[in-house]
Amino acid sequence: MGRIIAIDLGTKRTGLAVTDVLKITANPLETIETSNLASYLSTYFSKEEVDTIVLGYPKSLDGTPNEMTPRVISLKDRLGKLFPEKKLVLVDERYTSKMAMQSMIAMGSKKKDRKEKAGNLDKISAAIILQTYLEKL
Questions:
Q1: Is the dihedral angle over the CA atoms 43, 28, 98, 56 positive or is it negative?
Q2: Tens-place pLDDT, residues 7-51
Q3: For residue 102, how many other CB atoms are within 10 A of its CB?
Q4: What is the reported pTM?
């Protein structure tokens, strides 16, 4: 039984989150440079069993595609070729960045720390995307 990994794709940084082995909880994993994503995933998959890749699917507030939507579709196609044995799923990611920021505030992060630790925001957003997926299982 493999884990599920979630990806919150960004132009520069990408947030990652992963489930526990029982697929119960979503945990922030890492924030990496987007250009290193495929390499990072290959290494991670060689060490950890992963069944499913969940991609945050960006949309505008009205539900229409936004400027990141084509990049996510392109990434999905690329990952499908690189890792054909993995299930690929798109999950609506509207409001996840806002929810991640609210989580950081609730955890007591100061405004200065939130600005300096933008990478935390990315992996928390990925965890929210993953939790959304888990709730639908």
A1: positive
A2: 999 999 999 999 999 999 999 999 999 999 999 999 999 999 999
A3: 13
A4: 0.86
Structure tokens at 99: 């929810």
Domains of the chain with bracketed CATH? 3-136 (3.30.420.140)
Residues 74-95 pLDDT 10s: 999 999 999 999 999 999 887 6
DSSP 12: S
What is the Cα 69 distance to its own chain's centre? 14
Nearest to 83 by CA among 118, 125, 48, 58: 48
Q: Please give the backbone phi and psi of residue 11, each rounded to the nearest 5 degrees, phi first.
A: -70, -35
Distance in angstroms (rounded) separating the CA atoms of residues 70 and 6: 18
